[in-house]
Amino acid sequence: MLDQTSQRQDSQSAPQEHDGMIRIPGGIFRMGSNDHYPEEAPVHRVSVDGFWIDRTPVTNRDFRKFVNATGYVTFAEIAPEAKDYPGALPHMLKAGSLVFTPPKHAVDLRDWSQWWRFKFGTNWRRPYGPRSSISGLDDHPVVHISYRDAEAYAKWAGRTLPTEAEWEFAARGGLDGAEFAWGDEFTPGGRFMANTWQGNFPQWNRNEDGFERSSPVTAFPANGYGVHDMIGNVWEWTTDWYSPRHEADAEKACCIPENPRSGREEQSYDPYQPNIKIPRKVIKGGSHLCAPNYCRRYRPAARHAEAVDTSTSHLGFRCVIREGRTS
Questions:
Q1: What is the dotted CATH code of the domain comprising 1-88+95-327?
Q2: What is the pLDDT of residues 156-181, one digit of tens each?
Q3: What is the domain partition of the chain in residue ranges?
Q4: Among 25-39, 77-91, 113-127, the least confident range
Q5: Which of 39, 158, 181, 275 could make an SS bond with 223 (beta carbons 3.0 to 4.6 A apart)?
Q6: In this structure, are residues 71 and 63 in contact, taking their beta carbons and an 8 Å threshold?
Q7: Do 112 and 297 meet the contact criterion of CB atoms below 8 Å apart?
């Protein structure tokens, strides 16, 4: 009886326009970084109009409401077709997703396959394999979400996904040029400000921040705009196509790009899979797997490429509403 009541409540209408959202004022900021990974450079000035952004990443509770209301089936729950993946072994063409699986010994950090496993039967309901569940994880970010899945949720909610510039502007919390979303010190006064990895990645996480995997979306302090989890916990999708570098400023200040909406039109592909042309989008924020010895991308300027058909145990999303628009 309790389950039936819960399902009835979850299948109610989509969220109201600004429920659980924070207004971000427009402005001009310095996007990117010249001091870290090459894809973050060069620092350049970008103008962003005002918009609203989800206060937290979309949670398992939020996504369950969407699925119960629409019957939506995520990418990870559908077996891939052989024509889309030339050369794939037939026994691998089953529904599933990538799950972080720590190795028991030292590995080559250049080979991500040493800690990622494609597990059949893994999806947003079963985030660590077919025998796992999201019981007790309602307030954790939903994961195993492909770009298509994130877009579908956003459309249902009367929202959209953020551009890279909007996302980074919101993540900075009004601290233009600061190293992190809260300032220039990673753990001010010894306090952990985000869910990241402490220890020797990928074998050993000391869990000094209290979490080995994902965390509740308000477990760490909000930034200056009142937005939670822009750094760490899970990576988040943006609408921009990935490119290996930012474009530099125009020569004249008058030519600062205004309110970029969809990023570059050309598409980026994985250079390690030349026979499989799956376009890649920019993801932002880093995750609970970002560590000092690997992937120091727990910063607003950091960015990474993700194939649009990919879902993993550390990838989620949040939505925006641009002022004057509902989608």
A1: 3.90.1580.10
A2: 999 999 999 999 999 999 999 999 99
A3: 1-88+95-327
A4: 77-91
A5: 181
A6: no
A7: no
